Amino acid sequence: MRVPWIAATFFLARSALAVFADEAWNVDYHYALLGLPKQSTSFFHQPNPSSRASLIYTLSEEGVLGAVNPRDGSVVWRQLLLSEALAYNVSFLRAGEGQDTVISGIGSQVAAWSAADGRQAWILDTAGPLQDVEILELSDGRETAGAKDAIALSGGEHPAVVRIDGTSGAIKWQYQWDGVDQPYQVSASTTEVFAILLHKTLLGYVKLKVVSLDPVTGRKTDEHVVSSENELASAETIVSVGANSASPIVAWTNSAHSVLKVNILGTKEISSFNIEAHDSHAVERVEIHAPYHTNSLSHFLVHYETATSHWADVFHIDLKNSKIEKAYSLPKMTGKGAFSTGTSDANVFFTRVTRDQVMTVSSASHGVLGRWAVAGFGVAAGPGESVEPVHAVSEVSIKGTSVSAVRSAVLLSTGDWVLLRDGSPVWNRPEVLASTVSATFAIPAEVQEFVQQLEAEAHGNPISAYIHRVTRHLQDLQKLPAIMASLPQRIVQGFLGTSADGGIASDSFGFHQIIACATRDGRLVALDAGNPDKVLWNQQVADLQLGQTWQPSVSSPEGGIIEINSKASAGVRYNASTGEQLFSILPIDETAGEVALPVKYAIHKGELDATVDTKMAWHFTPMSGERIVSLVPRPVNDPVASIGKVLGDRRVLYKYLDPNLALLVTANDVTKAATFYVLNTISGAILYSNVHSGVDLGSPISSMLSENWFAYSFTAEASANSPKGHQLVAGELFESLVANDRGPLSASANYSSMQTGTEPFTLAQTYQIPEPISHMAVTRTRQGITSRQLLAVLADSSAIVGIPYGVIDPRRPVSRDPTKDEQMEGLVRYSPVLDFDPKWYLNHQREIVGIKDVVTSPALLESTSLVFAYGLDVFGTRLSPSFSFDVLGKDFNKFQMLATVAALAVATFVVAPLVARKQVNARWQFA
Amino acid sequence: MRSLLTLLCATLASAASLNIAILPSLHLPNPSLLPPSTHAVLIGPPGVRYDAALRRDNTLKFEALPEASYLLTIYSRDHFFPPLRVDVSKVTDGAEQQTIEAWQTFRGNEWSNKGSPYGSGTDALSIQIQASAQKEFYQTRGGFDMLGFLKSPMILMGLVSVVFIFGLPYIMDNMDPEMKQEFEEMQKKGPLTGSQGAATQMQNFDVAGWLAGKK
């Protein structure tokens, strides 16, 4: 135990680079996201049955379970239930009335979570993938005193219905059936449990089979088929299977969406209703909204949607004679709408959210109880895009007989989750960013325009340049009144040290870069790194069908422009500041082809192929049994300030700098070995390679290459010469290991990357780290003078650490103390254990979950690198790996400086007469 | 159906379970305040990894662990926990049962280097663990400290000389004439000052004469 702590204190003593207390929470920004919420798994629920305050719970498309405070939209707690996000995953979230837990079902796991703080109550693995999870609300005293039990329906080879004890998570009973019927859903009334199975007929149609079970014993009491022979072509037209209502129903439509059929579970009658077409468009979607409480009125709402409009019908169920009657209709409105149910005692209220209003009606009659106009949702959208509500959950406050307030959490078509209180937006969460798959930094278009104007003046003939300049200044004069008006405020802010760095146009440090994020559902969202509280613009750039995916890569080929490349479209460009699509013809660089032929390399069928001008340049085949895990090239824009490392005695060790390097990782699944190669991507030569055995290939293997050094990490099993755990290897390439000697390169005047015979001398060192690194990146600064930090994503700690290069420097002296020269260089004795000092955590106390990639960009200041991490959460900060040497930091106290100047001035004025008198006296007085 | 259930029960019974309770400690007085993201990870042989979330009763539970040697790490937002080694092995004589043992382990040391045992059990093991340190995320800036400023030797020297420059003439002026005379006498007689003092002699030293060999 002592060894790590000695190491830790040792690093603390070095006063490593850290997050300062006054910069934390100000310089960095973080969106704690959940992902797009799903209608079926989102609801308001009171975490503490004794208090009326409720939270919004959701289990999102990303597989994140979370509770959101409806007051400010902050996340109260979250749990990442899926490590790998699957689009359109099957997941369930239920909360029993008056319960302090919520029960989730995802994959094959059913788990109960404390509603107030997100701690796990129990977890149960079912045999197969879950088809449904419900909470059993029994009314006849057979209910257990503690938590309400859950029922789960699992599929797979042995489909089963299980009743799970709500307190312990133990299985109370299990019902399995023989035959080929597929499990579909499970439902429960106060007296019975229904399993709805799909029975495939010979003609390929499906029939709905309802199996009634005794909730106490799990024995089958009844079984019948409700739908007729060739009614259902597939399970897709089954609209809904209600649960936990006074009388659960199952509803389905025919494939043309023209007839709605409803069956009250437990009965055999089917009520049939015609769906009237309201206009020429066909009904595309039918949805049922019903209350989720056993003691609520058994009313439900059917929501119909066409391409251009929507309307709804409200139905009442007569419990005595099991009849369903249509009560009233809600009129057709253009655009999309979202319906949600809210309850108060037994009364049921339906809230309708459309693009311009929020309206609440009682389920009993069609009289409007409350109507509020929506002026706007307060979210950024693309040009010409109308923001539509996709789905909503609502909580209705009732005073007497009228509705006093309605809170609706609405998912919008822009991917924002907005809370509307009486029609006005209170907060919005840009959940669309949770599915970011590619991101880039870009210089704002305004800055780029200014640069172009200056260039035009510099390169034009003097007279026209002069005229250009004068007109530009005259144009600038128009902004003078605005500047004058804001001047007093700026001065005050300057004094108080609260200057928020101004807008994009007045960005002298280059902190206001635009971050463009392409999301999985085909949107492009832009943030301002200097003012990240607001989404700059957000628009749909790809029209994806349901279930379709795209793999976009976003880049900024030049200032002010964002380019998206995907398989479908090559190089669509957008204005970085406004998001406007730029119509440009493909840039053809005529000179490029003649002067230099690029070597293009790509992983193709498990091998690495490089081509020059369609001819094969080189070819890398992994050894037999090995597969390529990853390939990390040196960044294209990777400035290096010095070609050597200055030693303590002023001699120089020359770095092996080659722009065409890549780190390739291969793995052998049989021998559990991972091989790491440093390749020259022009010649295909292997410059360095290392094999590690006993590697856990299931855990992440991350790697990084920059300047003349590389780093990789992996998890290894204990062996004779290495302990079990996670390892970080850092290597550095030198031209020679002799100081002031460039090795064979010193003799040659010319250098060709094609014919180089020189090989680097590589130093590498291994460190034991406390947890796996899932992704690596490196800080980038404008000229590369500032020392670099290795940014490591720690998935287990939900953190990103910035490891200073000096700590992992392979030149740290092994088993001896550093000499005086080495101390001058800042090298410390090698210790095999590397603890991540909490002061290195860029996120400090924030928890950043699900990070998949980190992008960095240099600011205008040499000291500063901008960092942006995405995946599930979005996190960004500014880093100064060598401290902020070129800008006054927050520690510079302007007030103290002014006070000192003032004190000196006062002292001068006070002392001056005294000195003058003394000088006069010295001349005139004789002792 | 029953056969599957019994099979399931049998596998559950034969596989070891581990229950880790987090106790209050100096660094963590109330474990109930741990964030819900606190979790424990068991890493077994390559490809084997179990993850358990923190429960409401401040425990972490692993069920049905196969036989292997595991590294147990507990991750929490604000605290460090010591890493443990957990071994699940077959009882040598019994056919169905498993032994489960836990020790402290040291990173950077060989795997066989076990620390103090945390406990051992048959089929089930409950151990107790305490947070070993709190994470300190923030570095405070060296702000302006008046006392520290005054304590620095340069400032002290300066202050002393200021006192001498301004204070001494003032004291001299306020002394009564006899004392003053006495003081001046004393100064003259001092080893450095006065006509026979070392300083005066040094100043009056005849360099040219000495070089010329004058005695």
Automatic annotation (TrEMBL), chain B:
<protein>
    <recommendedName>
        <fullName>ER membrane protein complex subunit 7 beta-sandwich domain-containing protein</fullName>
    </recommendedName>
</protein>
<dbReference type="GO" id="GO:0072546">
    <property type="term" value="C:EMC complex"/>
</dbReference>
<feature type="domain" description="ER membrane protein complex subunit 7 beta-sandwich">
    <location>
        <begin position="31"/>
        <end position="157"/>
    </location>
</feature>
<keyword id="KW-1133">Transmembrane helix</keyword>
<feature type="transmembrane region" description="Helical">
    <location>
        <begin position="154"/>
        <end position="172"/>
    </location>
</feature>
<keyword id="KW-0732">Signal</keyword>
<dbReference type="InterPro" id="IPR019008">
    <property type="entry name" value="Beta_sandwich_EMC7"/>
</dbReference>
<keyword id="KW-0472">Membrane</keyword>
<dbReference type="Pfam" id="PF09430">
    <property type="entry name" value="EMC7_beta-sandw"/>
</dbReference>
<dbReference type="InterPro" id="IPR039163">
    <property type="entry name" value="EMC7"/>
</dbReference>
<feature type="signal peptide">
    <location>
        <begin position="1"/>
        <end position="15"/>
    </location>
</feature>
<keyword id="KW-0812">Transmembrane</keyword>
